[in-house]
Amino acid sequence: MKKGRISSVESMGLVDGPGIRYVVFMQGCNLRCQYCHNPETWTLLAGETVTAKSLIAKIERFKPYYQNGGGVTFSGGEPLLQPEFLLECLRLCREKGIHTALDTAGVGLGDYHQILSHCDLVILDIKAVDPQEYQKLTGRDISAFNDFVKQVQESGTKLWLRQVIVPGMNDNETNIQQLAALIKQMKNVERVELLPYKSTCKVKYQNLRLNYRLDNLPDMDEKRCDQLQSMLRELTGIK
Ligand code: SF4
Q: Is the CB of residue 78 below 6 angstroms from any atom belonging to ligand 1?
């Protein structure tokens, strides 16, 4: 019986995948994105310990809400850091006919083939395309992300792509061109979404006594983010 650590759940999520979704925020992440909205998930040692079976039994009770195109999204933190628990959850969902999405930055423990073959949709967060920018934003080398992209392409799993647009960091046309060039090499991409940076997470850092490195940064201008989104759509032909 696989056990995992989860930070929290949301029973009626509307932004993490298609339809109405039960969102499971899992503990653990090896990245340290400057704008992370969930710093409470970073450590693998916090949160509640649950078995995959008990979690999926709980989710199943909400199934009527998910029947019309919704499902479950495993998010975090980084769900790929608890691969055995995640795989058992995905297996159980498939047995019960529940659609699954994996919301990930693609930086886990290395072998994702089983997970990807049991997952209906991957929502992949592209932190940055340029290796130096990636390192600066996340504190980690880009090679683990590149390896995940390779495996997700081999698996043929459907992809939604996302990037957070941060003022003064990546809100420029060069970034959009680099992003478009990467996306055009990828298969099975159904959707690409740019998300404007928001500073609402500051209070979490204060509560956790962590330093918030973007303390004085304003929210991303939503109109500019929309312009960049249109440019990306034109360059890639993907909605
Ligand atoms: S990958 Fe997600 S959870 Fe991990 S640090 Fe970055 S934003 Fe936070």
A: yes
74 secondary structure, DSSP code: E
164-200 pLDDT, tens digit each: 999 999 999 999 999 999 999 999 999 999 999 999 9
DSSP string, 114-161: HHHHT-SEEEEE---SSHHHHHHHHSS-THHHHHHHHHHHHHT-EEEE
Q: For 123-171, how does the pLDDT look when each residue is reduced to its tens digit (9 = 90+)? A: 999 999 999 999 999 999 999 999 999 999 999 999 999 999 999 999 9
In this structure, the residue with its CA closest to atom 7 of ligand 1 is 36
Q: Who contacts 45 (Cβ-Cβ below 8 Å, separation ≥6)? A: 5, 27
> Mean pLDDT, the chain, as a whole number?
96
Using CA atoms, how far residue 10 sits from 2, 21, 73, 178, in Å, is: 21, 8, 10, 34
Nearest CA to ligand 1 atom 2: 77
Nearest to 29 by CA among 9, 3, 47, 53: 47
Write the pLDDT tens digit of every residue in 35-59.
999 999 999 999 999 999 999 999 9
φ, ψ of residue 204 in degrees (nearest 5)? -60, -40
Q: How far is the CA of 162 from the centre of ligand 1 (A)?
A: 13
Atom of ligand 1 lying closest to residue 30 CA: 4
